[in-house]
């Protein structure tokens, strides 16, 4: 049981060359993205020295950490396409006939990628903190880095389940790709991807509280930035665990019901 | 000749519509998708303007209009969507099927790829939104300013997409260059914000090198009459269009001669 999954991990690690190039690609884009963020927020902070509990440095740091969390979590978004493709093209037969549990197989492959990117991301952050961006003064201790990795992993699991649920809908509605794009957009608004949730107007904050999206990016970033008190930290990680369990149950129920209806087309 | 292309274009619209409409659920989701695209930028501006009262002389209504004009430009530019995957087609030798058709190769590549229905929806929604904002916030605009704004926008869309096309065609010589192309086109992200918040040198870069200001800032300031259109501006814009178009055509012509159909 364990050996076959170790082999899958080995295959995924063999692909790390490609991942590494992707990572480098993202790093190349960083200066341009940061130039834009820098000018925008420099302009905004010329009116106010503090926005919510974010100083100018905090805000730049927020977007820097966001880029790292995104590089680790975002690749999971392809799950919907892979699932949609496997179901519609009949490739699912291949997996169903193997001694593999398809949802776990999909998740496991992406975990390997997540670990690779988050480790490189943290190394990049340490490097940037020492060399190119020392003025940001990012506090990096083993304690908050460990909590950051844990929180990012839980965020990753929430994202995986979201896109897996959308992909599983293919059993009933055949084309789910624009629905997936809409989920992307919801994540964009409510996960802290555009702006930190704390500075949004109260009506968006209220909506975010009842949705799982802020636990994808905003919580891990806040953990690393040390923006949460111990109580808030426990609450946030508790909510992340709750959403992971809840959504995993939904994913498995949907998969069970959907895969029964599956008819192989062209497989 | 033109009739043939109009007929072809109509066929592509029908095919594009059928591709989407066959999945009713997908069709509905497309509309929701567009609404989302608009909404999160509005939320961004709304939030920012709740932090600072006025954004470099721009009010929320004007920024909403600014965003709608950007979306209109993106909708119009949708016709060039096919450039995105052209490098793969060239490298994998997939251009063969277009080369043996009795129509212009570039037009065939572009028309086949574009989701016409999606971009038509985007254009219609952007126009409706512009009208709605003008009415709701009682912004008065003259017919002339609409005409100037629209002309600058269309020329801007052509210029930016020709530049994107030129960068894409370079793959005839250097193979995969999407990372470099996207790196340069990352500058288009700057169009989301009014030009005047950036330092002077960046403003020049966004006006003359990667001229994204022509698809966002200038059409809006001309519509709102925040800036007067001068003859020098018209002259510069037209010269720019002619130069970029000439380079675009030349690079395509030389590039297609180098096409070797690897594995095609």
UniProtKB/TrEMBL annotation, chain A:
Classification via Pfam families: ABC2_membrane_6 (PF06182)
Keywords assigned by UniProt, alphabetized: Membrane, Transmembrane, Transmembrane helix
Regions crossing the membrane: 20-41, 61-81, 111-136, 142-173, 194-217, 237-255
Protein's name in the database: ABC-2 type transport system permease protein
UniProtKB/TrEMBL annotation, chain B:
Keyword Membrane: yes
Membrane spanning stretches: 38-56, 63-83, 116-135, 147-175, 202-224, 231-252
Matches recorded under Pfam families: ABC2_membrane_6
Key word Amino-acid biosynthesis present: no
Keywords, ordered alphabetically: Membrane, Transmembrane, Transmembrane helix
Cited InterPro entries: ABC-2_transporter-like
The protein's name in its UniProt record: ABC-2 type transport system permease protein
Naturally occurring in which organism (per UniProt): Fonticella tunisiensis
């Amino acid at each position: 049981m364990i050996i076959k999954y170790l082999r899958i991990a080995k295959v995924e690690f063999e692909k790390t060359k490609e991942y590494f190039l992707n990572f480098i690609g993202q790093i190349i884009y960083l200066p341009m993205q940061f130039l834009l963020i820098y000018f925008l927020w420099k302009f905004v902070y010329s009116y106010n020295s503090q926005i919510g509990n974010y100083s100018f440095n905090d805000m730049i740091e927020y977007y820097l950490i966001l880029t790292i969390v995104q590089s680790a979590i975002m690749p999971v978004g392809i799950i919907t396409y892979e699932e949609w493709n496997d179901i519609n093209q009949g490739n699912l037969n291949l997996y169903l006939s193997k001694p593999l549990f398809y949802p776990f197989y999909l998740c496991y492959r992406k975990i390997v990628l997540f670990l690779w990117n988050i480790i490189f991301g943290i190394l990049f952050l340490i490097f940037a903190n020492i060399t190119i961006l020392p003025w940001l003064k990012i506090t990096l201790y083993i304690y908050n880095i460990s909590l950051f990795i844990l929180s990012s992993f839980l965020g990753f699991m929430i994202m995986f389940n979201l896109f897996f649920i959308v992909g599983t809908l293919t059993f009933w509605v055949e084309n789910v790709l624009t629905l997936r794009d809409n989920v992307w957009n919801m994540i964009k608004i409510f996960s802290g991807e555009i702006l930190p949730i704390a500075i949004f107007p109260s009506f968006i904050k209220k909506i975010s509280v009842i949705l799982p999206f802020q636990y994808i990016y905003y919580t891990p970033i806040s953990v690393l930035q040390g923006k949460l008190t111990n109580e808030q930290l426990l609450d946030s990680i508790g909510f992340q665990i709750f959403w992971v369990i809840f959504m995993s149950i939904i994913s498995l129920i949907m998969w069970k019901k959907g895969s029964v209806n599956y008819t192989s087309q062209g497989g | 000749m033109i009739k043939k292309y109009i007929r072809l274009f109509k066929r592509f619209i029908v095919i594009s519509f059928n591709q989407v409409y066959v999945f009713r659920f997908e069709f509905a989701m497309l509309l929701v998708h567009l609404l989302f695209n608009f909404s999160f930028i509005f939320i961004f501006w709304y939030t920012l303007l709740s932090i600072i009262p006025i954004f470099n002389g721009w009010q929320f209504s004007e920024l909403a209009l600014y965003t709608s004009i950007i979306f209109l430009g993106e909708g119009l530019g949708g016709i060039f969507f096919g450039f995105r995957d052209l490098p793969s087609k060239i490298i994998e030798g997939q251009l063969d099927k277009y080369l043996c058709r009795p129509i212009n190769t570039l037009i065939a590549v572009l028309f086949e790829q574009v989701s016409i229905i999606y971009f038509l929806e985007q254009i219609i929604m952007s126009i409706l939104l512009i009208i709605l904002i003008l009415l709701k916030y009682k912004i008065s605009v003259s017919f002339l300013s609409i005409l100037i704004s629209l002309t600058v926008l269309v020329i801007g869309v052509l210029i930016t997409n020709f530049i994107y096309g030129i960068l894409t065609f370079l793959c005839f010589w250097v193979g995969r260059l999407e990372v470099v192309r996207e790196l340069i086109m990352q500058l288009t992200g700057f169009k989301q914000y009014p030009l005047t918040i950036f330092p002077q040198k960046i403003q020049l870069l966004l006006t003359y090198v990667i001229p994204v200001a022509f698809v966002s800032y200038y059409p809006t300031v001309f519509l709102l009459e925040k800036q007067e259109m001068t003859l020098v501006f018209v002259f510069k814009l037209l010269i720019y269009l002619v130069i970029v178009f000439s380079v675009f055509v030349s690079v395509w012509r030389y590039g297609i001669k180098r096409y070797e159909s690897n594995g095609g």
